[in-house]
Amino acid sequence: MAECHLMPECLPSLEWLREKGIKMGVATSNSEGVAERILEIKGIRSYFTALVGRRAGLRMKPYPDQILRCFAEMDINPALGVVVGDSVRDVRAAKSAGIYAIAVPSHFTKRRLLEEAGVERVIDHLGELPRVVSELNHGQVTD
Q: Tens digits of per-residue pLDDT, 14-48?
């Protein structure tokens, strides 16, 4: 867990999203216990309404099960949501659920593969997320 790092601009973007009243959740291939501990250690657990990790009966990404469960736990219609991920599996899971996908490439992902998976938008860092979310909401997110 010590080797887990927040992406650049993570905290300001999470804070902006929370200030706008946007619900956020985590769908991860980690166990829920490990994910809870990582989020707590990094000081960001309070930003997320839902956390869905490996669970019996839910297929893991690239299947949409975890993401759809996460949206259900947040009581959000997936068609109105956005998935932000850093892997091809994240993008494929979002696309198979019919959800708009934004990718933030990390050291282990290649932009070309994200684009081939069908991502709608690729951003270079999380600092771009507030602008992109504002654009998607066509002004419905207010300052």
A: 999 999 999 999 999 999 999 999 999 999 999 99
Domains of the chain by start residue, with CATH: 11-135 (3.40.50.1000)
Distance CA 22, CA 128 (A): 16
* Strand blocks (E) in 31-99: 50-52, 82-85
The answer to whether 93 and 61 have CB atoms below 8 angstroms apart is: yes
The β-bridge partners of 51 are 26
CA–CA separation, 119 and 72 (whole Å): 22
Pair 36, 43: CB distance under 8 Å: no
The strands making up 82-85's β-sheet, listed across from edge to edge, are 82-85, 100-103, 121-122
Question: What is the three-class DSSP state of 32?
Answer: helix
d(CA 23, CA 139): 17
Cα–Cα dist 134/100, whole Å: 14
pTM for this prediction: 0.90
Spell out where the chain has E strands: 25-27, 50-52, 82-85, 100-103, 121-122
